[in-house]
UniProtKB/TrEMBL annotation, chain A:
SUPFAM superfamilies the UniProt entry points to: P-loop containing nucleoside triphosphate hydrolases
Pfam families: ABC_tran
Originating species: Brachybacterium halotolerans
Family of the protein in this entry: Belongs to the ABC transporter superfamily.
Record protein name field: Metal ABC transporter ATP-binding protein
Keywords: ATP-binding, Nucleotide-binding, Transport
TrEMBL record, chain B:
PANTHER family, A to Z: ABC-TRANSPORTER METAL-BINDING PROTEIN, METAL TRANSPORT SYSTEM MEMBRANE PROTEIN TM_0125-RELATED
InterPro entries, per the entry: ABC_BtuC-like, ABC_TroCD
Protein name in the entry: Metal ABC transporter permease
Source species of the chain: Brachybacterium halotolerans
Family from the record: Belongs to the ABC-3 integral membrane protein family.
Keyword Transport set for record: yes
Location within or outside the cell: Cell membrane; Membrane
Protein keywords: Membrane, Transmembrane, Transmembrane helix, Transport
Gene3D superfamilies for this protein: ABC transporter involved in vitamin B12 uptake, BtuC
Membrane-related topology note: Multi-pass membrane protein
Superkingdom as given in the UniProt entry: Bacteria
Keyword Protease: no
Transmembrane stretches, start-end: 16-35, 47-67, 73-92, 104-125, 145-169, 181-202, 208-228, 235-253, 259-279
Pfam family, one: ABC-3
Amino acid sequence: MTPGSATPAVSVEHLDVDLGGAPVLHDVSLEVAAGELVGLLGANGSGKSTLLRAMVGVQAASAGTISLFGRPVKDRRVHAKVGYVPQFAAGGGSIPATARETVATGLLGPGRWFSRLHDPRVDSLLSDVGLSGMADRPITQMSGGQRQRVMIARALVRSPQLLVLDEPFSGVDVATQDAIAAIFRRLSQRGTTVVVVLHELGPLSEDVRRAVVLDRGRVVHDGAPEDRPLFDPGHDHQALHEECLGQEIHP
Amino acid sequence: MTIAPWDLLTSDIMRYPLIIAVLIGLTAPIVGTYLVQKNLSLLGDGLGHVALTGVAVGWLVGAWISASPQDLLAIPGALVASVIGAVVIEIVREVGHTSRDVALAILFYGGIAGGVVIIQLAGGGSQSLVGYLFGSLATVTATDLVIAVVLAVIVMVIGIGLSRVLYTVTGDEEFARASGLPVRAMNILIAVIAALTVTLAMRIVGALMVSALMIVPVAAAQSVVVGFTRTMRTAMAIAVVCALGGLVLTAYVDLPPGGVIVLLTIACYAVSLILRPIVQRLRARRTEAESRSGVSEPMPADR
């Protein structure tokens, strides 16, 4: 699919999300065409990660609807098209998995409950992210950048049509950031939809043509990145809670 | 009198328990690996307590229908009760607002209290539960063996056959959900195979010590190997050796099998702790050599 195809890759309509009774997203509507590369920006606590998590069905909505490729996000079948990189590279529970084991889990999906550790796609992705020699090392013994590469390989191994990433550059050195950005650029050129949460555009500044900016749970800008409003980087969840609830949450 | 090893295999008292011991050694660490992964190490303990209520209910029903022996339905009762308990705790954990440790505590106390009260109603006393609490070889029958084989096959088919999915769900639930995996169903499945393993093991190891065979071999394996699959396989090997070794030991020395088996697993854990720094040093040396030879390449700019 290319940008402009009839069915959007992501459609969010009048989304509200509450966390622990506190509103985090209010009336968010957003459409992402297939093949688009969209940056979700905002200060800490603006709700961008919550929006991303709601998009992939990890965070329940309080109101509103979310569709992926024309199907409700609750329909597990549509998740076969999604590759997801969470904000914090999970260590794989209490028993650390190896890079190979972790990437192989990316092959699983609705109706696909089996995957081989030595699948050629796993080897190929590990090689693509420069970790073929560390395939059997536990990811807990890797640097933050290496672990992030494993998570990206895990998301890409299923050849997703929609790649959703939450701050993929955090804790990653500049050279690796550029290399990761090059992967997103290549995927976008090939028609993969990419939605990425960023604090700053950074290495994607030349590639992101559409920036969606959130502030206190609302979309305040949706358009060219250069026209986006500046946000206060000091704004955080604390302030959001206080403003939404109209009360102090300090003891 | 000295017992020859061959006699152990031909003795009616020992043959069935030895086979069941191997099955326990194979299955308990499979379940234990997922429970450790989920930080739910005490679930097996909670289910062991609930299984006691099931044993007592089995006795009660057995008394009503004048079954012979009276505990004929004890293990089926334990099976039903622990499976129901496993499903309930998973649902309470997910949809309720109860934290895991509180839900487990309720399971612990409710299970043991239910067992003691119901066994009294069945005309027995707390003594009737002792064999199930601490394990006993004298009570193992051919029916128990058949039940154990069936349960072990189910646990192994699910635990090994679905290992990738279960690993993903227990290791990174958020990613599993985003991938479209049936997270709730898999969590319930893990709780159910834990219940089956408790039922399978309680005859020999005892309800109070079942959980140790699930968890301690996994903890020992974690000290010396890396990776999820290797940890599970190593834990299985440790548990089989301990279960068999403990049982054989009790044929020569009059000791309770459950306690001996669990103490052996703890001894293995202690040995693994001693080996741990050595293994870590060797691993660090290899990592250093790999780093020098550049196994972690910079990420290719574009391909």
